[in-house]
Every structure is written in structure tokens, then in C-alpha cells.
Design the sequence.
């Protein structure tokens, strides 16, 4: 069973959410109506040792980088909703015998990024574990209800745009050093340009397909237009590696020229990489209408090796 299939089964078991929960499970954040036209955004994510970062070898992460990444990947979820981050809580389970120095450095990395994004650490929990380190962070943000972006909302004829570049996140160290696209996501929401949006954590192909599925449309992806992180990055890596933490978003065809003309972030590349079309919900084809075959995987699935 895939991660998406498991989550679909789980969501079906949940009781009906209160009317104040505007966005239930299944998006990048949950959203709760809190008055004055505002939504409270809530998301949680982990970093797990030897899965989200390596402790040894040429790509080993420092404690500061681990703490930074924990907050950064949560900030990316807020960005995908067009929101503004406000505060967070974190829980860390550290192996028995690991000294205080590692934890101090971990929080130094987290707090440095928090200061850059005006995020307050307001609580959490510390414990020990006999296994690899695990850290979890719950982030809180806000967004006007009229501006919130969701994974659903793309329609046939809409263009798919992407920020940044894709692939080779591990060998380049991008997965530890990326800057969450909070300012870009907020601007897109304020300008009412993003009809649907997601951040790419599990791979461009897989996450773009999630937008198409939740929107009930097909996606035609222009592979030649997808920016590669390095000259050595293969097409397969660009489409399936994951941990890019870039934004993918649907834009009405008539708004494409305005988006490209008014884009206020010269240091953030912007590229149109596809078009939504009528067709089977969630199907992703190339621009010639052919399926993507021959790849070892379509993206990262946390349940891929489970039975």
C-alpha cells in the first residue's frame, strides 16, 4: 500500500470535522477559522536520523543543519498555503548517551532560521530513545481566508509553474540548505495568482500528480522545461529525487503573462513547466501524451517498503 492510499483510508475513518476547520487533513496544512477573516494554519513534520539526514560519510549533516532543516521543511508547508508563519513547538528524542552539545547545536540551527522568519519557539518536549534521533516540529501560521491556497483548484487550460530547480538534493546539500519559499508563496496568495499550490518534498512528478488528482484533472508535463539543479542532474533525478522544497502552482492561462511580468523575486527562478488538461484525475503525461516509464520510482513513498 502506498502512503497516499493509506492516508485515504485513514481520512475516511475520521469523524466529520467542525465547521471551523476550513481545510481538513489532506493538504499541506490544516486550517481553522479563528475570526476577523483569518485562518490558523497548522502543520507537523519530522526529521529522522539516517532517513532525512545522514550522520556519517561525505553527505553527513551537522547538528545545526538538522535543526535548520526541521524548521525549514515545516516553513515550506506554510509557504504552499500562501501563509505567514508565526510560532512553533518542537519535540526531540535523542539517543541515550548523546551529549548536550549535539542538542545545543541542533537548537542553534533551528533558532537561527526561526529568527530569519520571525517564528517564535513557544514549547515542546525532550526525551531519550534507544534508536536513531527523531525530531518533530509543529508550526503555526496565519492567512486571510480569501487568500489561502490549496492543492485543489487547477482547471483544464491552467499552466503549471515552478520555482527554482530540481533534482540532486542530497549530493548538492540542497536538502539541508534550502530557503523556504515563504515570501514567494505569500505574494502569490496576495495577488490571487495561484489557483492551486504544493511544495515539492516527495518529488516533482509525484507532487504534481497530487495537485492534478485533488483538482480532478490530468497534467501534461513539459520535461524539457523543468530546470535541473546541476548540469549533471538527470531527467529522472529532476522528476523523482524529491526534497527540492520548491513551489508548484497552477495559474490561469490568461494570468501567465502578468505573473512573469510582475514576479518580484529576481533571485528565484520561475518557469512554466506544464499544462492541466481534461483527463483521468491525477494522471501525469509528457507533453506528447505519453506515460513516464523506465524510472526506478515516481517519487519518494514512505510506505514503499512496507507489506
Sequence:
Amino acid at each position: 500500500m502506498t502512503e497516499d492510499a493509506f492516508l485515504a483510508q485513514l481520512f475516511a475513518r475520521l469523524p466529520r470535522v467542525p465547521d471551523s476547520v476550513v481545510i481538513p487533513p489532506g493538504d499541506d496544512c490544516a486550517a481553522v477559522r479563528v475570526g476577523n477573516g483569518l485562518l490558523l494554519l497548522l502543520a507537523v513534520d519530522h526529521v529522522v536520523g539516517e532517513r532525512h539526514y545522514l550522520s556519517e560519510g561525505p553527505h553527513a549533516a551537522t547538528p545545526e543543519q538538522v535543526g535548520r532543516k526541521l524548521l525549514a521543511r515545516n516553513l515550506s508547508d506554510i509557504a504552499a498555503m500562501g501563509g505567514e508563519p508565526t510560532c512553533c513547538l518542537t519535540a526531540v528524542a535523542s539517543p541515550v548517551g548523546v551529549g548536550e552539545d549535539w542538542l545545543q547545536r541542533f537548537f542553534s540551527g533551528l533558532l537561527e532560521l526561526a529568527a530569519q522568519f520571525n517564528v517564535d519557539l513557544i514549547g515542546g518536549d525532550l526525551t531519550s530513545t534507544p534508536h536513531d534521533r527523531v525530531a518533530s516540529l509543529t508550526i503555526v501560521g496565519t492567512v486571510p481566508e480569501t487568500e489561502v491556497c490549496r492543492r485543489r483548484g487547477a482547471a483544464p487550460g491552467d499552466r503549471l509553474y515552478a520555482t527554482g530547480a530540481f533534482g540532486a538534493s542530497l549530493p548538492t546539500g540542497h536538502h539541508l540548505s534550502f530557503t523556504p519559499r515563504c515570501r514567494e508563496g505569500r505574494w502569490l496568495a496576495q495577488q490571487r495568482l495561484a489557483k492551486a499550490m504544493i511544495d515539492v518534498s516527495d518529488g516533482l512528478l509525484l507532487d504534481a500528480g497530487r495537485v492534478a488528482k485533488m483538482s480532478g484533472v490530468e497534467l501534461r508535463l513539459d520535461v524539457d522545461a523543468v530546470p535541473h539543479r546541476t548540469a549533471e542532474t538527470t531527467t529522472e533525478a529532476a522528476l523523482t529525487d524529491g526534497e527540492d522544497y520548491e513551489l508548484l502552482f497552477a495559474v490561469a492561462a490568461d494570468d501567465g503573462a502578468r505573473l512573469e511580468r510582475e514576479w518580484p523575486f529576481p533571485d528565484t527562478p520561475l518557469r512554466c513547466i506544464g499544462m492541466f488538461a481534461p483527463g483521468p484525475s491525477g494522471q501525469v503525461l509528457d507533453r506528447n501524451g505519453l506515460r513516464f516509464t523506465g524510472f526506478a520510482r515516481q517519487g519518494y513513498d514512505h510506505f514503499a517498503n512496507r507489506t
Observations:
- The first strand starts at residue 21 and ends at 23.
- The chain has two domains: 3-144, 159-286.
- The chain has nine helices and twelve strands.
- The domain at 3-144 is CATH 3.30.1330.10 (60s Ribosomal Protein L30; Chain: A;).
